[in-house]
Design goal:
It comes from Pseudomonas shirazensis. The chain is of the alpha/beta class and 320 residues long. It has two domains: 193 residues, NAD(P)-binding Rossmann-like Domain (Rossmann fold, 3-Layer(aba) Sandwich); 100 residues, UDP-galactose 4-epimerase, domain 1 (Alpha-Beta Complex), CATH 3.90.25. Helices cover 40% and strands 18% of the residues. Helix 1 links the parallel strand 1 and strand 2. The protein binds uridine-5'-diphosphate-4-deoxy-4-fluoro-alpha-D-galactose.
Length: 320
Amino acid sequence: MKFLVVGGAGYIGSHMVKHLLLAGHQVVVADVMPAHSGVAWVNLDIADRPALDALFASHRFDAVFHFASFIQVGESVSDPGKYYQNNVAATLCLLQAMIQADVRQLVFSSTAAVYGDPQYVPIDEAHPKAPINPYGRSKWMVEQMLEDFDRAYGLRSVCLRYFNAAGADPDGMLGECHEPETHLIPLILQAASGRRPAVTVFGRDYSTLDGTCIRDYIHVNDLASAHALAIDYLQAGGASTAFNLGNGEGFSVEQVIAAARSVTGRSINVIEAGRRAGDPPSLVADASKARQILGWHTQYALLDDILGHAWKWEQQYPWR
Ligand code: UFG
C-alpha cells in the first residue's frame, strides 16, 4: 500500500516509516524537517492547503498517518495559540484536503493527556476526557473533529492514545531527539553519558510508593506495530475508534533512574526540585482494548529493553 506519513521525520514518525518500509509499503513523508536518507520526503507544512492539494494530486494514498504536532505541555500553557494553530487548525486543513482527494483512512497520534487528572488507574478508553492543558485539549478537539468527519464524510480514523513513548530502534540508528529535550528518559541518559551534569527529579511528595511520579513507558517500536495493526483494522472495514497504548505497568521517576544506573553502569547525579506544573501523580494504561481488537502484543515491555535501546542511541550519537 501507499501511505502519507505526516511528521514522519520526527521521533515516533521515523520509527513508523522504517516499520512500513520493512513491511514492503510505499511511503511519502510530509514534514518541515528532512526525513531520513533514502525516504521520499516532501517539505510541507500541513497548514499549507495548496501544497497539500498538490501532494494528494500527485500520489494515490491509501491512508494517512498523522504524527505532526507540538508536544510540550508547559509551552502549550504559555503559548496556547501555537498549539491550537498547529495541532488543531493545521490538522483540520489536512482533513479537508484528505476529503477532497477522497483519502478516507487516518491513524492519528493522540495522547493520555486527553484524560487529564486520572479518576482511576489503570485508565481505559471510557475514562472521562478532561484534559488539563491546551496540549491535551488540542488532541481531544481533533478526536472530536474526527468523529464528526466520519459521520459527515465517511473518513474513518483510529486515534492512538500514547502513554509515555520511549526507547529507540534496537539498531541504534533512530532514536529520541527533541529540542529542547524535556522527557525523562533522554534526560537521564544524557546525565549518564556526561552531556548533562545531572537529572532533575520534579517532586518527591506525590502519593506514590517513593513519592515520585509514576508513568507507563511504552517502546516506540511497539507504538509503530500498533499503528500498522490500526491500518489493517481500517482496511478491514473497522469503525472509527480510539485505543490506549501502554504496557499497563507503571514505574516511578526514582525507579527509572535506578534502572538506568543498572543498564548503563554509570552513576547518574540527581538534583531535587519541586513539582512540575500539570504532572498527574500516576498515569498507567489499560490497553486491553488494543490487545483484544487489534491483536496488539508488545515486543519490548521490559523497562531495561526500553532503556538499553535508548542508551545505545545516546552513545551512538554523542554529537547531537
Ligand atoms: N520528570 C522529571 N524530571 C525531568 C523530566 C521529567 O522528574 O527532567 C518527570 C515528570 O515530572 C514526569 C515523568 O518524569 O513525572 C515523565 O515526564 P516526561 O516529561 O518524560 O513525560 P510526561 O509524562 O510529562 O509526558 C508524556 C508526553 C506528553 C504527554 C503525556 C501524557 O511527553 O506529550 O505523556 O500522555 F502529554
